[in-house]
Write a structure and sequence with these properties.
By secondary structure, this protein is α/β, with parallel strands linked by helices. The protein is built from 14 helices and ten strands. It binds pyridoxal-5'-phosphate. Pyridoxal-5'-phosphate binds next to helix 4 and helix 8.
């Protein structure tokens, strides 16, 4: 007997109906499944987005507030020169200055190297004119360390007060030469060396020579300026104390921006101007018997120095030229920026702005010039911003209502 495999008409009809309904069911189910899985995916997507959103909106403690400062157009100087004069608003950092970046990176680097361990009584020592000390005191508190700050005793009083409020030990010493063992940086080094006991380590931050200072600006501030200007920048103008800011930003930008010019803004009394111009570290006001007031003979705090540091040396080969800025120019510039822009800055920012104006005049209209607004005038109320103090020191310069930047910058 042979079994027939040829379907009858009825069976083939049933088969076709079966196949069609199977296919329809498959399409329906696939559609349904896709819809459900798409919705699930969308929900997941929404959830992920929400989380990402939350993550980007919330910063982690005071350290999370550091950096990414805006780059602002300084209208008065831009209008006066036909250039775009930009100031990076470093005074918006939580500790009030660009030094927050440095303090954070120095402490973080020491932690990564296993030198500092939190909540062990370990103490960060630093010799500073104030800003770095304030930033160190803030980060130290946030991370479980103590801070011991050695400072010259001729700085604005609000800096000592801030340090004390932040819980730092403050040691004020007479300003003397770096070759003296009692100089504030030397003393901080010595205090750290004699401190360690048990788990508690005495860490000398050493901003002048510590590479983490340079790195903070090479890895953060420099890239920020590059991003914010889209790489369209003709000149960078900065003063130098440790030189970390100048070298870090300069090295990053010079590797990427063709024809970038870098100018040093140096206050009177500092030797860096002559070093850049003539390769001789010399300031006439530092001659024996000539020196009057401060470590460097200027009312300006934070920039100007009479020795070469590792952090300055890292970027020195890239500096194209230098401007010397007098106390009179810096004081008048600070008052001018308030009058014209409502911009209240400290003394080193005022020096930077005088040099930025000179750079703009030298390059001519149409150029983009970047400088830093390191800290606010609030840090300088009792010195640079005090008419009484300036009169008592015989360095009072009034900005007359009719005076413009063209009049007071030589
Ligand atoms: C207010 C202020 N501006 C500028 C600077 C100079 O920065 P740097 O030390 O990176 O040269 C300092 C340094 O202490 C400072 O305190």
């Amino acid at each position: 007997m042979t079994l027939s495999i040829t379907p009858t008409c009825a069976t083939s009809k049933a088969l076709i109906v079966g196949l069609l309904s199977g296919a329809a069911l498959t399409v329906l189910l696939t559609g349904l499944f896709t819809k459900v899985s798409n919705k699930k995916h969308k929900d997941q997507e929404n959830q992920v987005n929400v989380e990402e959103h939350v993550e980007t909106e919330i910063v982690d403690g005071v350290a999370g507030l550091i950096g990414n400062t805006p780059l602002m157009k300084i209208k008065s100087l831009s209008d006066a020169t036909g250039c775009l004069v930009l100031g990076k608003a470093e005074f918006l950092n939580p500790g009030g200055s660009s030094k927050d970046r440095v303090a954070l990176n120095m402490i973080q680097t020491a932690e990564e190297q296993g030198i500092l361990k939190p909540h062990t009584g370990s103490t960060v020592f630093e010799g500073t004119v104030g800003s770095t000390g304030i930033s160190i005191a803030m980060i130290a508190r946030a991370k479980g360390y103590k801070a011991w700050i050695v400072m010259p005793d001729d700085q604005a009083v609000e800096k000592y007060q801030l340090l004390e409020k932040l819980g730092a030990t403050v040691e004020k010493v007479r300003p003397v030469s770096i070759v003296d063992k009692k100089q504030f940086v030397n003393l901080a080094r010595e205090r750290a060396a004699n401190f360690s006991h048990g788990e508690a380590y005495g860490y000398f931050a050493d901003q002048f020579e510590n590479e983490a200072n340079f790195q903070a600006h090479y890895t953060l501030t420099g890239p920020e300026v590059y991003r914010q200007t889209g790489g369209k920048i003709d000149a960078l103008v900065l003063g130098a104390g440790t030189g970390g800011t100048l070298s870090g930003i300069t090295c990053y930008l010079k590797e990427r921006v063709n024809n970038l010019k870098v100018f040093l803004a140096d206050p009177q009394g500092s030797g860096l101007f002559n070093k850049v111009k003539y390769n001789v570290m010399y300031s006439p006001t530092e001659q024996e018997g000539n020196r009057r007031r401060h470590q460097v003979d200027t009312v300006v705090e934070g920039i100007g120095i009479n020795r070469l540091t590792q952090n300055f040396e890292k970027g020195r080969r890239y500096i194209d030229d230098a401007f010397r800025v007098t106390d009179e120019e810096a004081i008048k510039m600070s008052r001018y920026l308030v009058r014209e822009d409502g911009l209240f800055v400290g003394s080193s920012s005022a020096v930077n702005c005088v040099a930025a104006y000179r750079t703009a005049k030298q390059l001519g209209p149409g150029h983009v010039i970047v400088t830093l607004l390191n800290d606010s005038g609030q840090r300088h109320l009792t010195k640079f911003w005090s008419d009484e103090y300036l009169k008592a020191q015989d360095i009072y310069f009034e900005l007359k209502p009719e005076e413009t930047v063209h009049d007071f910058v030589k």
